[in-house]
Amino acid sequence: MTDPTTRLNAALDNYERKTAMSKVKIAAIILFAFPTFAIAQEPVPPALYTAGTDITSALATAVAARPSMAASRIEVGEHYRINLIRRTEAAGAIVHRPGTELHYVTDGAGTLVTGGIVVRPAGGGQGNIEGGLARRVTVGDAILIPEGTPHQYTAVEGSITYLEVRFNVPIE
User: Fold this and answer.
1) pTM of the model
2) Is the pLDDT assigned to residue 172 strictly greater than 60?
3) Which single residue of 59, 103, 115, 159 could bond 132 by disulfide (Cβ 3.0 to 4.6 Å)?
4) CA gap 83, 74 in Å, rounded
């Protein structure tokens, strides 16, 4: 059996080791974390904000000018375009090179065909997709259309409005 003084000294040594280790951990955090925070604190531009009233107003103006397929430009950046699109009629097939698109349906419904190949009439005119996948899309649906993928709204139920975000597009 060890005497109380020996046990007390052992406990104090253990406490001092733990305290020293805690001080080392705190010092490491101060040395490594604060410089990281300082680097991360460089000023950056604010996020893009467009008021809903501005988007709605621009879409109303676009609808008045072109009712069957109106586009309200929200923002154009170095590598993206954001538009609000409203369609009241089916349209011909299109393929974007370059550019991947995201459609997020905000109002209405329609049939969107994606994939397959675009076939144009012998005399010219708008093409249609053969061998693609047709899906009914409606409010809340999101569709990612990769670059080079044919797509076409073949039917519109009254009207369809969707947020279109195009990535990796050239600036005009």
Assistant:
1) 0.72
2) no
3) 115
4) 5
